[in-house]
């Protein structure tokens, strides 16, 4: 954008940036958001996901560039190009580099206010360049656009806000394409949004189809001009996608393993809700926490814009063909935010998990755009427009008031506030002579008050993570990570009994076993599901590993919270949220004690690769319950008969019931309250006869919504949500100590799904682990995209088993020769070796990367040389003619 630093000529552009940026900065400061106080902008996914990605971004750029392609901090390991393409490609993220990890929340605030400002600046610049509006009207419309309801509701989804900035620029490019036959602005801006966020780019691309039709009619193109404009549009769109291919191609291939591998939602020809309900969204403060997971579209754009949109269709200054085209597009967009098939189309065939109607920023832009076209030079509107608008205002307000229970995001106070602001705005547009000069600043001030009221009312309903809580945890995690790396520079994974988010490994820069992200590979989710760890759509958490899983997955170290922090440390154990209880740590070795944490070494860890029996090759899938699957893995690795089970089901010593029916068999039965008004419990008791490990399986029905579980009268530390059976470590080295598990019913009945006690014989386990540790892969060098080492294969153990997920892109070299791996348990890479000593190399190359780079380079050459050829051709014809 060509903006000269001339305050006299360009003050509207400066104000268009400064008003939203300074207003939001002032609001955040008043709420004590870091760096202004002890609160932060971290809430919901921003606090549970994105902030860790920002730490990952910072670490990649400053220390480990290979993380752009692959990271072992993503669950058990996975490609990261698609993660960057969705979350981290915004150039604004460069502002995070000067901030330390605990201060990244301050960086988030800086980026947030910059994006608010740049969204306003972007729209104002486009309106100015296209001569649609000028002077004080630019900051008025810019404020309405930048601080619209969609932005307020989605500011925590920081990676989406770039779309708000680039959408006006894409439309500007499309206008240049249609009217002036200029290719580059449209190609450049559309390519930029595809590079920054392909998801938002998809939505903007759909809108460009609609806008092309509008632009053609608006500018009254003839048939020949329409044909040429359409060809320019199609070819330019293809070139824009081509320029972004270096990241789009790898991302597309990666998504085949993750998000797009899920079945597309079936089309249901119905409305998502009663459409008039969305009218409540045009009143200030029409957003709350309940609207995040499932609500109506956030369409608030302020009173001035709504009045001018109505004027667009009623005033005679706009030609009827343009009104008709705009009306059809408005109808399509209106249906899209309430009619299921269209809603599904805008979301690429998959309904979003939380944050519904993510494309509604396009609706907000469209409304502001129409208002800019309709706003007459003399400010005043015709009386018929004023009267129609007033009647609509009364009707909508009355409807919302009568149906206030159905629009629970509104209150009577909000309705009254919106009604009064709209009424004042209407008065400003009435055709009364002699009062227009003073209205110029007043309409701007009214818009700031209107949009500001919506922002304050909406954001005041959301709670945020305290800055101290985030900073202390981040510092503790980083200290534990760095200390462990100094102790052991090898290649291993680290688990912990505490967790702030599932992306702690990306925040702390270590190989862990948890991840939350929309690009998580589906097979990894399936493996967690089938081995007893919590999983969900887009997340896995290594909270319920048995000793065998700890060994198999190379969890060489574990961090545990010190119940009493060392003297002199200001923090408390409460600063580290408990993830799970793990009595198995009694059998691991404590090696390092920090003020808040103790690091344990797992002597059973099998390394990233080890030699296993030939029967491993036959175990392609696991499809049963977690303990059966772990027994299968164990037997296959050791070459044992399937009848020899490592984990064995055992009975409880005693069962007692209080205010429920009595049961003979526990698992699979249903507990029912006798007296619905009194507490009801079932208590299971067992006393370990040995110092071995004991585990309890819990089916998905036994979540916190249905039951509260205590162990020895203390809450059972367990990850809250799990949709499949999980395994809880109950005891280890606790011989003769009674263990009492109590189920407290929260509902009239409770299905005891998969409630079984298991015993792990320590001697059998130790003998098997000793055998598997005989011939490990000795790692000589490793990085984010490669692992090299040596190993000795034998006739009894010909399979090199790894805990590296089997994903496209890995190439394995054995003694300098390429070898194709096979997959074990539908998750891990393994190869068959001949007896003897071998040099092994694993190298990862992002699938589709070179193809994408090639297409991007080719597209760049076309963009660079075709216009030159056209200019030469015109000059040649001029000379020869």
UniProtKB/TrEMBL annotation:
Positions of transmembrane segments: 12-30, 83-100, 107-127, 156-174, 186-213, 233-255, 299-318, 324-345, 357-375, 381-402, 409-432, 848-866
Keywords associated with the record: Membrane, Transmembrane, Transmembrane helix
Stored InterPro entries: Uncharacterised_YfhO
Lineage: superkingdom: Bacteria
Any Pfam family the entry gives: YfhO
PANTHER family per record: INTEGRAL MEMBRANE PROTEIN (PTHR38454:SF1), INTEGRAL MEMBRANE PROTEIN-RELATED (PTHR38454)
Name assigned to this protein: Membrane protein
Source species of the chain: Furfurilactobacillus curtus
